[in-house]
Structure to design on (332 residues):
């Protein structure tokens, strides 16, 4: 019987990400052992667990299984990551050994896209601002300042899984989307006749710019003062990718001046007390969210269990991460 190890800490939301009905399915597939603590595992503790593990189910906080650690896991046949990016969990050693790497990133992507559509419509329609006014008994309509998504010209920075799902959701709106992604294959936009490749300068000059690139050393602060200056007055900048892609110090004066509207689900530093006060003080032209665009929990683990079943049956896997994809994934 296969030995399956679930290396996810028992944090307060564990039961939402790994509910009993999903674990029941997993436990029918092999002998399942769980990391029992609320703290994350250490590297040495994971090495000990991997000595006789056939399938590793990883999650946020699981230590990276590099080449050295993989040598201590002689039976390991599959890495199944029940969350998004696996760049900080797997390593190129998996590909050298021919061990499949799975990620629930495609599952998360559609929920991120849904969140992006929600945020963008709320921003264009000034939903948070009207909500505040209504609660203050001010029947004020900021109709002259509202914008619409139908026929909008949008720029995408990056075109990964979430961006592609977002393109699907934008189809009914008749938008014109310019996409900057140097890693996009030649036919990468063939599914969307309303989208075309463009330079970063063209993308940044659009009235709506949506950030979807991965977090890598190459993309750190790629949206800097010079590129923010390319945005037209009244433009919307939305980031549902990673906070480090935007130079926050350069963004703050653009927002403080009221020149652009910022929709931010991610920040360079996250958690209570880390969102810059300068952004918090601009409610008229910002929407700030605590990294909630995905809004998904157990479907990721459920999809991973589906692929583990396929693996054990010798069927084609649906969530495999190729080496090329792995190298372009967000690095936490």
């Amino acid at each position: 019987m296969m030995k399956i190890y679930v290396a996810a800490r028992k944090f307060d939301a564990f039961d939402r990400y790994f509910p009993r009905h999903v674990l029941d399915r997993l436990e029918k597939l092999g002998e399942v052992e769980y990391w029992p603590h609320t703290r994350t595992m250490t590297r040495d503790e994971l090495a000990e667990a991997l000595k006789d593990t056939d399938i590793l189910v990883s999650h946020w906080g699981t230590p990276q299984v590099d080449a050295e650690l993989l040598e201590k896991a002689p039976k390991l046949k599959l890495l199944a990551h029940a969350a998004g990016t696996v760049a900080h969990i797997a390593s190129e050693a998996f590909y050298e050994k021919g061990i499949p790497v799975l990620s629930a990133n495609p599952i998360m992507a559609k929920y991120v896209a849904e969140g992006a559509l929600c945020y963008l419509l709320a921003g264009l329609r000034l939903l948070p601002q009207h909500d505040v006014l209504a609660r203050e008994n001010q029947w004020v309509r900021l109709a002259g300042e509202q914008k619409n998504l139908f026929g909008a010209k949008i720029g995408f920075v990056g075109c990964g899984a979430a961006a592609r799902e977002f393109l699907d959701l934008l189809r009914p709106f008749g938008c014109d989307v310019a996409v900057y992604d140097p890693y996009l294959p030649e036919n990468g936009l063939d599914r969307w006749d309303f989208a075309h490749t463009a330079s970063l300068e063209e993308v940044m000059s659009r009235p709506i710019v949506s950030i979807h690139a991965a977090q890598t050393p190459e993309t750190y602060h790629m949206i800097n003062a010079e590129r923010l200056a390319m945005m037209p007055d009244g433009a919307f900048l939305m980031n549902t990718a990673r906070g480090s892609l935007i130079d926050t110090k350069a963004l703050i004066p653009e927002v403080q001046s009221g020149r652009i509207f910022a929709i931010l689900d991610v920040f360079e530093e996250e958690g209570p007390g880390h969102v810059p006060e300068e952004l918090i003080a601009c409610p008229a032209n910002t929407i700030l969210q605590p990294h909630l665009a995905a809004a998904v929990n157990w479907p990721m683990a459920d999809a991973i269990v589906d692929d583990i079943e396929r693996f054990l049956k010798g069927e084609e896997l649906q969530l495999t991460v190729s080496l090329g994809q792995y190298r372009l994934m967000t690095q936490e």
The first strand starts at residue 3 and ends at 7. The domain at 109-288 is CATH 3.40.50.720 (Rossmann fold). The two ends are 34 Å apart (CA to CA). The mean pLDDT is 96.
